[in-house]
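Step 1: inspect the first sequence and its tokens.
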Amino acid sequence: MSARALQEARAQLVALRNDELERVALSAGAVAASLAATVFYQPLALPLLVGGLTLGALGVGSMWRRWDLVDRLADDREAYVIPTVRSYAARDARMDRRLEYASMARSWARHPDPAPDSRIAQVAEQLEGLACELEAADLDLDPESALACRRLLTDPTVSPLLDEAASRDDLERCIARIRAGFEPRG
């Protein structure tokens, strides 16, 4: 990602955040005015309510577009210079999330779902090793690898674990990339 693209992404995130806040604030104001209009001037109540709800829906749309942009940027390590992107990925590296992922990985290693899958059975040891490393409090996991771990275990659009058409080699490479993100703490 070029410096210019990073700058544009940062500006787009700021614009979406401002848009989100403005629309939600205006929405709240319009709904409050609608409630007041029921007492003081009833013909305005319904238009203000409809306007407030519409602005609220537009605010939710801005929130969604912002989240989607952050999620896409999190796949690019260079975008981690943007604090929002870094914090988004870093939350997956927290110990509480790591313990959840360890439980999921262990579950896949022991009971492939929905039916026995030979690819998963063949990488059960690697999944168990990943689970152990995720649980190890003396290891840090870099945010990019933590995000890759979440996607491996939960995202059917990109996970070789959840895509039956993906090869065993794809699955092994993905697990190895995640495990390479561990470092001794301190």
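Step 2: inspect the second sequence and its tokens, then contrast the two.
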Amino acid sequence: MSNENSRMYYEGGQTPFSMSALTDSGDHITYNSQAARFSEYEGSAPDIRPDGVLNGAVISAAISGTDDLIDLTAFTAMQAGVNRSVSASLDETITRAATDVSSISSVTLTSAQAIAVIQGTDGTDATFSETRGDPGGAPLIPVGSIELGQIRLTTNVAGPITDDDIFQVPGTHLEKSLFPVVTVKNSAGTVEFSSALPLIHTGAITKAIYGKYAEPIFLEQPFSNDFVPSEITHSGSSEQYYSSVRGSSTSSLSRGSFTADLNDGITDDILTHVNKNLWFKYQQDEFKTPYVLTQGKLGIARTLELLKSQKQQ
């Protein structure tokens, strides 16, 4: 129950964080920021930028027809939080194994925005390994680089690279910025991928995830009461059939609200944030830890009266 120790706060400002790397929580799915939660205030919403190709970067056999060469179309990629535009590259050399065994070469974009082909360890036979760094497997990619595709060969005899030698499946041979799908968790200040990111970089780590975001600063709204948190509500319906009844349910999110006795209803700071997406924090007791957080657009319904000083005259 609310009492004189209850407090109501609203997002009155933001602490910005410049573009920087997020930290792997250890499951390679959830990545942590430096913020306790993300603001969605206009101009401060999180901008999350995983490393990887955005579009283009199609590998093909060299147009020149020369043995052991590939071409690469122009592409754009997100790298270290920056949108890179990379020109097409022609006649990149693929090095074959010394004997007729499996060999995988990774085509990469380096942290210096150059195309580099990295050869994996030669296999012991014609069988490929899907374990990075193993004989017959793809190499680990330098930290900060982006894998664009793989060339898989089983012969040391020079010849043109064919379509069957080129592999560019997202998440397996090709790092895409927007794959797997990422979800921003505002309340936790984290981002979460739909599946674990592969450990394909030196040191068995994932690609880098960068982000620019802001953390809300809470200001107390004095003379407030009647806080109603936003809740998920459910409704059900049913239909009678000859032998049974079938039911269904729907869910909706209710609007949160609170009442505040403003200073004059015109110059109060909270009014500068009307129609903005804010965080709101309610503490039932300011001397205890528990609190309720809710986020949404601020709407108001004012009743303007005489100022208190005028009422007393």
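Step 3: confirm your contrast with the notes below.
DSSP finds one helix and 23 strands in the chain. The chain has a mean pLDDT of 94.
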